[in-house]
């Protein structure tokens, strides 16, 4: 079993910054893609950013230039630095991991989520 746990959410004023972290633990051979998704009230969960183990990165258009995703493969941890936050960034942010639990078995995991609230 693999667990993902997010941290770093909170309340911030518009224009401010937050840094989210997500640590994966458990039976991990290797993590391929790690990513951040978010879900605002009444809306579907949407992609924020993903990063592949080799370093390839993808961002949603709405966060390009403001958010930066990074990862520490040795620590099985992914980060999301969020700058110039806007009220529309308010959501529960979820970490996702595409995990090889052994060389032949691939599983997908989600963290429980962390709330980010941006006040105007």
Protein described:
This protein is mainly β. The chain is 0% helix and 62% strand. It has strands at residues 2-7, 10-13, 18-26, 30-39, 46-52, 57-59, 67-72, 77-82, 91-102, 105-110, 114-119. Strands 2, 4, 5, 6, 9, 10 and 11 form a 7-stranded mixed β-sheet that branches. A hairpin with a 4-residue loop joins strand 5 (46-52) and strand 6 (57-59). 29% of the residues are buried. The model has no long low-confidence stretch (mean pLDDT 97).
Question: Could you provide a short overview of the structure?
Answer:
This protein is mostly beta strands and 120 residues long. 0% of the residues lie in helices and 62% in strands. The chain has strands spanning 2-7, 10-13, 18-26, 30-39, 46-52, 57-59, 67-72, 77-82, 91-102, 105-110, 114-119.
Give a quick set of tags describing it.
elongated, 120 residues, four-stranded antiparallel sheet, mainly beta, seven-stranded mixed sheet
Q: Note the gap between the termini.
A: 40 Å
Q: Quick one: how many beta strands?
A: 11
Structural class: mainly beta
Question: What is the arithmetic mean of pLDDT?
Answer: 97
What's the overall geometry? elongated
Helix content: under 10%
Q: Note the run of SSEs as H and E.
A: EEEEEEEEEEE
Strand content: over 45%
Q: How many DSSP helices?
A: 0
Largest sheet: 7 strands, mixed
Instruction: Tell me the Rg in angstroms.
Output: 14 Å
- Unreliable spans are none
């Amino acid at each position: 079993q693999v667990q993902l746990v997010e941290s770093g959410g909170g309340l911030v004023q518009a224009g401010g910054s937050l840094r989210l972290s997500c640590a994966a633990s458990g039976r991990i051979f290797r993590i391929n893609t790690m990513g951040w998704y978010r879900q605002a009230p009444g809306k579907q969960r949407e992609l924020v950013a993903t990063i592949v183990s080799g370093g390839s990165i993808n961002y949603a258009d709405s966060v390009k230039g403001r958010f930066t995703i990074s990862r520490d493969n040795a620590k099985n941890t992914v980060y999301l630095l969020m700058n110039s936050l806007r009220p529309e960034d308010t959501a529960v942010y979820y970490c996702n991991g595409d995990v090889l639990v052994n060389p032949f078995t691939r599983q997908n995991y989600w963290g429980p989520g962390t709330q980010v609230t941006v006040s105007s």
